[in-house]
Amino acid sequence: MAVLSLAAMALAYAETKPVNDASPDQVSEIPAVEDLMREHGVLRRILLSDEKMIERIHAGKRFPREDLQKSAGIVRRFIEDYHEKLEEEYLFPKLEKDSRYAELVKSLRAQHQAGRQLTDRILLYAVSAHLNNFGKDQNNLAACLQAFIRMYRPHAAREDTVLFPALHDLVTPAELAEMSDRFEEREQALFGADGFKKIVDEVAELERSLDIYELDQFTPQTEDLEQS
Ligand SMILES: [Fe+2]
Ligand SMILES: [Fe+2]
């Protein structure tokens, strides 16, 4: 009973209302592959946030419940219910017909499913681990986040370097242009005008909350490297 209600709470949190406040002539011309690759940029920033949250969980610091729900909510709305759906509807059917890419697409499809299951669990643990302070749930949550990061880094990298380049070989420029239009229409239907920018703003807010927004913190100090 308690688990069911927690699951309902967690899943309800990730739900989104489609926003259709853009007119057709506001559709911008972002090439399909560039569109998908910049969405991977959003995913990579989320993985960085997830890494920071694992650190906080292990350090026993303030439990990052709101940040976790924000992060998993962006994954659900933007990555799983939008970006991956585009791959599944427009790219995978074209590539899996070619024997050179059939196995790769099979793995990518399986990873999308595994990712969705992990997000369900993360949303659930984001609530229950908060209630059972520093209990077993927090270890399970950290393990789910780690598994998510471990899978999606090679997943996105393989798509960037093999799947997307293959698309250029297998479809005509006219088909690619048509795909670009469909992607933009879907983005505007789901997230409104400037949808990508709004999602990036949400990610930046999450990063600020986790103190990882300032890019300079990732620049190594060469003097320190020489000393070590
Ligand atoms: Fe994918
Ligand atoms: Fe992808």
What do these coordinates show?
The protein has one domain (30-213): Up-down Bundle (Four Helix Bundle (Hemerythrin (Met), subunit A)). It has eight helices and no strands. Residues 6-27 have low confidence and may be disordered. The chain is 77% helix and 0% strand. The chain is mostly helical and 228 residues long. It binds fe (ii) ion (FE2) (2 copies). Residues 84, 87, 108, 112, 155, 159 line the site of one fe (ii) ion.
Key attributes of the depicted protein:
228 residues; mainly alpha; Four Helix Bundle (Hemerythrin (Met), subunit A); binds fe (ii) ion
Our measurement of the CA-to-CA distance between the termini, rounded to an integer number of angstroms, reads 54 Å
Q: What would you report as the Rg, rounded to the nearest angstrom? A: 19 Å
CATH topology: Four Helix Bundle (Hemerythrin (Met), subunit A)
Number of helices: 8
Which consecutive residue ranges, at least 5 long each, have pLDDT under 50? 6-27
Order of helices and strands: HHHHHHHH
Which CATH top level class fits? Mainly Alpha
Supply the helix-strand structural class. mainly alpha
Largest sheet: none
Helix content: over 70%
* Number of strand elements: 0
Task: Quote the beta fraction.
Answer: under 5%
Present as ligands are:
fe (ii) ion
CATH architecture term? Up-down Bundle
Number of domains: 1
C-alpha geometry = globular
Mean pLDDT: 86
CATH superfamily: nmb1532 protein domain like
